[in-house]
UniProtKB/TrEMBL annotation:
Cofactor(s) the protein needs: Mg(2+)
InterPro entries xref list: CysQ/Inositol_MonoPase (IPR050725), Inositol_monoP_metal-BS (IPR020583), Inositol_monophosphatase-like (IPR000760)
Family matches, as Gene3D superfamilies: 3.40.190.80, Fructose-1,6-Bisphosphatase, subunit A, domain 1 (3.30.540.10)
CDD domains according to UniProt: CysQ
Keywords: Magnesium, Metal-binding
PANTHER family (alphabetical): 3'(2'),5'-BISPHOSPHATE NUCLEOTIDASE 1
Binding site for Mg(2+): E68, D86, D89, D223
GO terms of molecular function: 3'(2'),5'-bisphosphate nucleotidase activity; metal ion binding
Coiled coil: none
Name of this protein: 3'(2'),5-bisphosphonucleoside 3'(2')-phosphohydrolase
Catalysed conversion reaction: adenosine 3',5'-bisphosphate + H2O = AMP + phosphate
One GO term (biological process): 3'-phosphoadenosine 5'-phosphosulfate metabolic process
Amino acid sequence: MTPSDADLAADQLLAETLAVEAGELLLQIRDSEKATGRSLGDIGDRRSNEFLLARLAEERPGDAVLSEESPDVSARETASRVWIIDPVDGTREFSMRGRGDWAVHVALWLRDGTPERSRLDVSAVSLPGLGLVIGTGGARTFAGEPVPLEPGETAGGLLDPLDDVAGPRIVASGSRPPRFLAGVVASLGGTQHAVGSAGAKAMCVVRGEADAYIHAGGQFQWDSAAPAGVAMAHGFAACRIDGTPLEYNVADTYLPDLIICRPELRDEIVDAIAAHR
Ligand SMILES: Nc1ncnc2c1ncn2[C@@H]1O[C@H](COP(=O)(O)O)[C@@H](OP(=O)(O)O)[C@H]1O
Ligand SMILES: [Mg+2]
């Protein structure tokens, strides 16, 4: 049965609320814990995961959950509602105090969701370091103030000011960029920028700081579900690097590559990747 608008709105509000609350918890952990580096990242992953699982069990006890930090259960494959969460995306950057390029991902995969949106009609990405949450309807601060998403209005973003940069701005992993990326960026006449976290990179595109996010070589469903859901809701293209759709709640959690970009760039990027792979 297709979910009603009221049900979708209630789920969307929950997704955004949980992404904000987990983000606030992570900021508090980062401020108060003595741990550094990998151990700080482990504490953040574990505590944010425990928090999100407890809140989902309370608010939506009948739903299945697929989390980066919990064992996968086959029951989700036959479920009609599956929350796909990444309690800290960009754990490495989270553990480097002062950085803002990390995120909390909360998406709800709906069997009866919109196929063109990979059934991720309900999605939220929070960027706790920037105090922002971006959902399918728009962006707001953690305090609830609406934030415009138009290009040029993204004060306090993740990239350096790029006024003098011509051509498409492509964001990619700083630690594991796709091997073909330099060739693709050159053939698009663009520039390459390193940003941590899949969610943070996708939100650079949604907020107009970048024109495309390209990844290949490894990733999992939770890394891209909420970012892709938010991007598609705002009219951006999201697909595999060969142009095929991103599929979620399939048995294999491995989903190694993606493109999230302005819709008019999609075909050109797919063609450039095919030429450089
Ligand atoms: N080659 C690879 N294999 C597996 N996961 C990868 C990967 N490259 C990136 N990722 C995951 O994708 C997310 C974004 O990575 P990056 O910042 O390098 O772009 C990170 O998620 P987590 O921080 O949730 O583990 C990272 O672990
Ligand atoms: Mg991740």
